[in-house]
From TrEMBL:
InterPro entries named in the record: PsdUridine_synth_cat_dom_sf, PsdUridine_synth_TruA, PsdUridine_synth_TruA_a/b_dom, PsdUridine_synth_TruA_C, PUS1/PUS2-like, TruA/RsuA/RluB/E/F_N
Protein name: Pseudouridine synthase I TruA alpha/beta domain-containing protein
Subcellular location: Nucleus
Region (Disordered): 1-48, 250-271
Species of provenance: Cinchona calisaya
Length: 508
């Protein structure tokens, strides 16, 4: 009785103790005063809430964010999520901004601009009163959507209990075509030959789109000549020499001394003009027939015969090199070859399906692994694309796994990458009789809708408007990546050989 009286006289709310190893699923939270005994009026009793350990499933489009993990001074997914949890009542005032106090853990860290469909975080939250998911979604921006949460054991950690992770990279089909979006030197060298290359000047230097070149977007083939540059567009009012001169200027903007506006310098223009008669002679020898076309029309004489179905087997063979346990020190940054963390296990890597989004055809590359390092997936895709475009040999992948070799591996843009799902197989097997299964099955329909509405549409529209992948393809040459000429039997870092090889490569 004395203890009760003392408690009523001096209320002393006890600070919550957090533990990551507690065996209890729940933690009682009493925010009320004990009703007084006797005739004195009883204060209104407040709800009694419990803090519960849960796993939250959600998705986000990474555009505009500096990655998943919270970073002071940067806009991150985790930062916005923590604030939403506080304002929705899932995190108390005293724990705001201190994720360790509510046992917060994430299944995967995504880089800047990378999206996710099946991201999972865990922690101890107030999930009462109901409608926590609705409250969170009303606070968060539309590009971050909470699907739901599931009760887990007290010792659960979204990071430690995640067995494997599946990422998807959408690469445009045209990126695998060796003749599409070549570097300026290669295009210039091909002029007048039987294998002229398409040159999209604007996407090469300014990021502007050239309609009809990017993917399989529907368009009218009769377009204005100043809107598209194709490999054999000719006008009936020009002589062969004038046609070639116009084509050279339109097809080699910025070569050997271009100014800021993308125009050729006087010296380069004169040099190209001197070569026009030879090219005109070549046209005469090949008996190029000039059809009667209006001045504002362009004729597409030759199109690339590349299609993914024909090259699917080769691309999957290249991706299969990554499967198994390897040293991926060349596929990340700031990790040395002798560092144990460089050893990673890739369960599967395949690209067997294509998707068409807003008129652009993409190859869906799915990679499943235990864990991944910074930029690892983007660099694996980058080297695979370089091999498909015949810039590097297949043996270079195995060479890159060697601890005594350091190679500058090209890195694909971040826009096409997203986290597809996190798996908790061992946990589900152990606790299948007492807890819900942790998987995306429950939220499959919502996740697919979000993927199409935000992630896929963003990837396609970004490529169409900015040509991110197209611009990156122009950088895939021996001038920027001289290491791409390395082969398994010759790994010597001979500067002279690399210089000669680079010059030879520019003439391909």
């Amino acid at each position: 009785m004395e203890n009760e009286a003392q408690s009523e006289a001096e209320p002393n709310p006890k600070k919550l103790k957090m533990s990551t190893t507690s065996a209890s699923d729940d933690e009682d939270i009493d925010n009320t005063l004990t009703p007084q005994e006797g005739p004195s009026p009883t204060p209104q009793k407040k709800p009694r809430y419990k803090r519960r350990k849960v796993a939250i499933f959600f998705a986000y489009c990474g555009v505009g964010y500096q990655g998943m993990q919270k970073n002071p001074g940067a806009k991150t997914i985790e930062g916005d999520l923590e604030e939403a949890l506080f304002h929705a009542g899932a995190v108390p005032e005293q724990d705001r901004g201190c994720p360790k106090r509510f046992d917060f853990a994430r299944s995967a860290r995504t880089d800047k601009g990378v999206s996710a469909v099946g991201q999972v975080v865990s922690g101890r939250f107030y999930i009462d009163p109901p409608d926590l998911v609705q409250r969170l979604n009303s606070i968060l921006p539309p590009q971050i959507r909470i699907f739901g949460y599931k009760r887990v054991t007290g010792s659960f950690s979204a990071k430690k209990f995640c067995d494997r992770r599946r990422y998807v990279y959408l690469i445009p089909v045209f990126a695998l075509d060796p003749s599409c979006h070549r570097d300026r030197e290669s295009v210039l060298a091909s002029l007048g030959s039987e294998n002229e290359l398409v040159k999209c000047v604007e996407c090469s230097e300014r990021g502007r789109k050239v309609e009809g070149i990017m993917g399989k977007r529907n368009f009218d083939s009769k377009v204005r000549s100043d809107a598209v540059t194709v490999e054999s567009g000719i006008s009936s009012n020009n002589t062969p020499a004038e046609m070639i001169q116009e084509k050279i200027i339109n097809s080699s903007t910025g070569v050997n001394g271009s100014n800021d506006n993308g125009d050729l310098s006087n010296e380069t223009s004169k040099e190209l003009q001197n070569g026009a008669p030879e090219i005109e002679k070549k046209f005469e020898e090949d008996k190029v027939e000039i059809q009667n076309e209006s001045q504002d029309e362009v004729k597409i004489v030759k199109k690339s015969e590349f299609y993914y179905g024909k090259e699917e087997e080769r691309f999957n063979r290249i991706l299969k090199y990554y499967q198994g346990t390897h040293n991926f020190h060349n596929f990340t940054t700031r990790t040395k070859a002798e560092d144990p963390s460089a050893q990673r296990y890739i369960i599967s890597f395949e690209a067997k399906t294509t998707v068409n989004v807003e008129g652009i055809e993409f190859v869906k590359c799915e990679v499943v692994g235990q864990s991944f390092m910074l930029h690892q997936i983007r660099k694996m895709i980058g080297l695979a694309v370089a091999i498909m475009r015949n810039i590097a040999p297949e043996s270079l992948i195995e060479t890159a796994f060697r601890q005594d070799v350091n190679i500058n591996v090209p890195m694909a843009p971040e826009v096409g990458l997203y986290l597809d799902e996190c798996f908790f197989s061992s946990y589900n097997q152990k606790w299948k009789d007492s807890h819900e299964e942790l998987s995306m099955r429950t939220y499959a329909e919502e996740a697919e809708n979000f993927k199409m509405q935000y992630i896929y549409s963003h990837i396609a529209s970004t490529e169409f408007k900015e040509g991110v992948v197209a611009l990156w393809l122009h950088s895939l040459n021996y001038r920027n990546y001289s290491d791409l000429r390395f082969v398994t039997n010759n790994i010597r870092n001979d500067a002279e050989n690399l210089e000669v090889g680079a010059k030879d490569g520019e003439k391909v």
